[in-house]
Amino acid sequence: MNFTYLGTAAAEGWPAVFCNCPSCKRAEKIGLAAYWAGTKEAREIRTRSQSLVGEDLLIDLPPDTYLHKLRENLDLTKVKYLLITHKHMDHFYPQELTIRGSGYSHDMVNEDLHIYCAQETMDYFYLVSGWELDKASDRHLHWHVLSAFQPVQAGPYWITPLPASHMKEGNEPFLYHIEKEEDGRNLSILYLHDSGYYKDEVWDYFEKTAKDKGPVTMVSFDSTSGDKETDHGGHMGFSEVFRVKDRMEKLGIIGKETICCMNHFSHNGHYSYDEMAALASPHGCLVSYDGMKLAL
Ligand SMILES: [Zn+2]
Ligand SMILES: [Zn+2]
Ligand SMILES: [Zn+2]
């Protein structure tokens, strides 16, 4: 099974939509042609956060979904399951779903889409998009409201939402533990976006999961703050990711074979791709870029 990073930036993109800082200028100079061709130097250009598990499970629906479809030549009608981490705009652009179905979509592989998210994310969708959504399209959107630590089955996947350290009190941002049996193996992904240092009950979950099932196949770490220790927006910088990874190794949720990848970067984090890769490598971490594919 492939895991594909479609977009790897924080909310404003990199270069950011409205910014002329040196980090954005460095990325901007590379140009769209190189980004489209997927050259190594174009790893400085990052679009808003989205990932694809296999061909049928999409994580998040940012404003750059359309660009991802074009760049990766995706048939998004193959997606059966959509997981939404939280309702920040770089993870959920709800209006996009109003053009899925009825007269907007033909010859779809799957008419039905199962959406997994917090209650507030679903409420937000109908608040801002309900007036534009026709009934025929709405009938094919199947919402599954999640509660922290309550696993749900999505076709061949088991999804366990975990509470993220992100957003204000009362919001419901989720980290996800995604599992799938494939060829006798338990493929297991911890998708830890967006979040600052994890809550005690999340650490307890990691400990219990490690005891019951052993190490996971892959972890994706929030690395938004780059060269900063952390910030107050519920994210992590590089040094915090390395500390978190050490603790996860001690618990056994990360093992020798676990693929660890840093992801979700802000221009305010400053590091270039090569600088990030040089820092991450001694800690056994990869650095994501738009279009990166990992074979699990
Ligand atoms: Zn984000
Ligand atoms: Zn900038
Ligand atoms: Zn966020």
Keywords:
296 residues; alpha/beta; Metallo-beta-lactamase, Chain A; seven-stranded mixed β-sheet; 8 helices; 14 strands; binds zinc ion
Describe the structure.
The chain is of the alpha/beta class. The chain has one domain (about 1-295): Metallo-beta-lactamase, Chain A, CATH 3.60.15.10. Helix content is about 25%, strand content about 25%. It has a 7-stranded mixed beta sheet. The radius of gyration is 18 Å and the shape is globular. The relative contact order is 0.15. The chain binds zinc ion (3 copies). One zinc ion binds near residues 10, 91 and 264.
Topology:
Layout: E1 2-7, H1 22-30, H2 32-37, E2 50-53, E3 57-59, H3 65-72, E4 81-83, E5 113-117, H4 119-129, H5 135-138, E6 141-145, E7 152-154, E8 157-163, E9 174-182, E10 185-192, H6 200-213, E11 218-222, H7 238-251, E12 259-263, H8 273-280, E13 285-287, E14 293-295
Bound molecules: zinc ion (3 copies).
Summary?
The chain has helices at 22-30, 32-37, 65-72, 119-129, 135-138, 200-213, 238-251, 273-280, and strands spanning 2-7, 50-53, 57-59, 81-83, 113-117, 141-145, 152-154, 157-163, 174-182, 185-192, 218-222, 259-263, 285-287, 293-295. The chain is of the alpha/beta class and 296 residues long. The chain has a single domain, classed as Ribonuclease Z/Hydroxyacylglutathione hydrolase-like (Metallo-beta-lactamase, Chain A), CATH 3.60.15.
